[in-house]
Amino acid sequence: MTQKAPQIKKAKFIAMPDTLVILFGVVLLVYLCSFFVPAGKFNTHKVSYQADGITKSRTVVIADSYQVQKDNTGAVIHNPPSIFATDGDPGFLNFVYDGITSGDRNGGAVGVMAFILIIGGAFGIIMRTGVIEAGMLKLITKMKHRQILILPVMVLIFSIGGAVFGMGEEAIAFALILAPMMVAMGYDALTGVLVSYLATQVGFATSWMNPFSVAIAQGIANVPVLSGSMFRIGMWAVFTTALMIYSVTYARSIQKDPRKSLSYESDNHFREQLAEVDAKQHFGIASWSILAILFIGMIWVVYGVIEKSYYIPEIASQFFTMGLAIGIIAVISKTNQMNLNSLAKSFKIGAGDLLPAALIVGMAHGIILMMGGSDPTSFTMLNTVLHSSANLLSGLNEYVSTIAMFLFQSIFNIFVTSGSGQAALTMPLMAPLSDLVGVGRQIAVLAFQLGDGWTHCIMPTSAALMGTLGVARVEYGVWVKFILKFYLFLMLLSIAFLIFAVMINYQ
Asked: Which residues touch 418 (CB under 8 Å, ≥6 apart)?
């Protein structure tokens, strides 16, 4: 009689919900909250501050001007959105269309979605040539056992970019190259996101000179602009080094066993692409010209952002120009059998690959509209949340209040993703609050800076994050599962720095 082998029970696997499912859940929660949270508004005024020897101004809220929406009898109004709106106002079932069509060419959903699609199309052309993949394989072959050194170098470069000029959306384009490069090196696409996008956010959150967050927040808080730099430079060095160590450690573990990667299945896309590339292909004038245009184009982007204050419209057009120039060279030289039709098709395929990321950006903006928008002078749920949070923080001691300000800024950033916009809304309230609890306004700025920075690493409303994940073909749920432990580490390390700042009376 043969003995039956014991049956092995398969572990139950709970699949991570799709990003769109998560966003819809958030929208539903906001809609339900609208029945209980009244709308409120603030009055605003302009404040002036000095930055780089230039007098700048910013419209900010007046701290004690909050008023809740009431009817003629004095009763508080709860005005939840309609299920289906037909008058142009936000509606529960209208949030997708409303979100996608919000903003303009310079920002909001429309601008960012166009930015993502154009970059996707441009890189669709660039990757179609096959030159980038072949060049990466040649570089990896030459580096051999030294290829791990690429990771800390990338972290350092992108962290500086985040610290100096607030690099964020620009990481999307670089991730298009770095994700397949990391897979080719034996790592995974998640490593590419770590050394590009996450590195920019480390620099952004700990910057000593970011003109879009630190400078504006300090100006509004009436703190000398770009003061307290030495403390922040030390903080930046600690956080950047931590990310370097984490990236190298993680990459080595994946190199030993690629199947451990949470993105192993989605990385097959890059493996299939790389398998079709001939690493020994001849690099003639055309191939080197394509690489030169790409290199010069990246320098042009960085120069434009730093020196010319280029933003989404200009950067998108820069990448389109790069894609077009490279495409023309490839067609003329017949690189990878390219012709005009394949050039056009490559642009459409590249843009199509990033369409899901663009849709997520639009839907995320719909959440803000469901709360009434972020205008402080209009009656919105967001203004009520801001006012209520400030009142809750006012009764705490200096250490608890500092940590609470940091956590509040982190949560509030989910709904107001713009660093400068968040500074204009929160700093007029947080700065005098810091006076009441006995901590310096510099610490209030630091709490804002760190809170504003880290949430971008995990929130689905961040266009830069969702765009980067889209080009790296990493699902949002996979990213959250992967980064959660390191994100908590960043939060705890931030709290440690804030406590230390209070101890030394950081000014």
From this structure: 107
Note down the domain range covering 156: 108-190+237-362
Higher pLDDT, 431 or 321: 321
Cα-based distances in Å from 370 to 31, 179, 272: 7, 35, 42
Q: Which amino acid is at 92?
A: F
User: pLDDT digit string (tens) for 213-235?
Assistant: 788 888 888 888 778 889 999 99
Residues comprising the chain, all counted:
507
Instruction: Calculate the average pLDDT of the chain.
Output: 83
Residue 83 within any structural domain of the chain: no
Rounded to 5°, the CA angle 372-392-364 comes to 30
pLDDT tens, residue by residue, 285-296: 888 888 899 889
Report if residue 374 sits inside a domain: no
How much of the chain exceeds pLDDT 70, in percent? Answer: 93
**DSSP state at residue 197:** I
Closest-CA residue to 427 (of 136, 130, 143, 61): 61
Q: Which residues pair with 76 in a beta bridge?
A: 70
| Phi then psi dihedrals of residue 226, to 5 deg | 65, 25
Structure tokens at 42: 């603030």
**Strand pairing category for 44-51 and 40-41:** unpaired
454-495: pLDDT as tens digits: 888 888 778 788 888 888 889 888 999 999 999 999 999 999
- Using CB atoms within 10 Å of the CB of residue 195, give its burial: 0 to 12 exposed, 13 to 18 middle, 19+ buried: buried
Residue 33 lies in a domain: no
Identify whether 217 is part of a domain. Answer: no
Can you tell me the distance from the alpha carbon of 483 to that of 250, in angstroms, rounded to the nearest whole number? Answer: 11
CA distance 198 to 456: 9
Rounded CA gap, 493 and 238, in Å? 9
Distances, alpha carbon 321 to alpha carbons 15, 324, 468, in Å: 41, 5, 21
CA distance 22 to 371: 17
Q: Phi and psi of 293, rounded to 5°?
A: -65, -40
Domains held by the chain: number: 1
What is the per-residue pLDDT for 10?
44
Its pTM surpasses 0.85: no
